[in-house]
Known about the structure:
Strand order of the largest sheet: 1-9-8-7-6-5-4
Distance between the termini: 31 Å
Largest sheet: 7 strands, mixed
Number of helices: 9
Number of domains: 1
Helix content: 25-40%
Oligomer: single chain
Number of strands: 9
Shape: globular
Amino acid sequence: MADFLNFAKDLNYWTGFGLPRFNVQTVYQDVQSFFGTDPKNLPVPAGVSPVIWNNVHEPTGVPISKTDSKFFGYLRDTRHTINGTAVTSALNDFVVFLLGLLDYDAGQRIIHTQRELSFHVRDSKVDVKVDVAVLKRTRGISEYVLVVVEEKSMEDDLAQGSLIAAAIAAFCQNNLSRKEAGLPSLESQTILGITMSPSTVPTLYKIPVTKKFLHQFLEEGKCPEEIMLVQRLTPPVCDNIPCYFSEGMNVLANRWIILKRLNAFKKFLDEDRT
């Protein structure tokens, strides 16, 4: 029990190897399984112009829209480093721009950055940082539906664990907001998650969180009986895997894949809340 609590309270143990201690399992899915459709049927996002779709770099000598210019500017800035380290704010700014471009903030949804969340394991508070989040305004409150965590490097083993911790904290905050508003609490919710690498390669997750799982995990401080089965999609690669992970959206073929998948991911924002 003591070892379990120590692991649960320290996010440094929330790694690919550490998560099974908490009965959290990740299943890797192909595009067909993850989205429920053939990847060939995923359309070009409506908000993405031919300029973004067909040009590796920002065109010169021709007028382009402000939105198109921002895309290339934000993408370029993600490659800037200070003493060899990527600038975190630049990557987060690009994520916010992308989500807006793809209408993640349509209707009653809104995008926020640098959210500080937490949950308690027994009597100990665990603080979680969310780089970018999408919240949905409903019945007088705002509820988390998607969380984004930046990967510090392509070998970052903590990002997935940090993302799952963020999803748990988001679910707890949603129910706290509901309680304060006099609304019934959620029994379960699938929180969407994205980890974004410094090279602009996103990994997409569907993270199912339930009150039963959290009661045993957080309140009783023991390994939950039920499994949290997290679905993970790493978008496929056209030809060159190293190029995909090192260059990300700076390569057109990669950009097409990533933008189509991110656009398709949006459909899950309003699903799986009970």
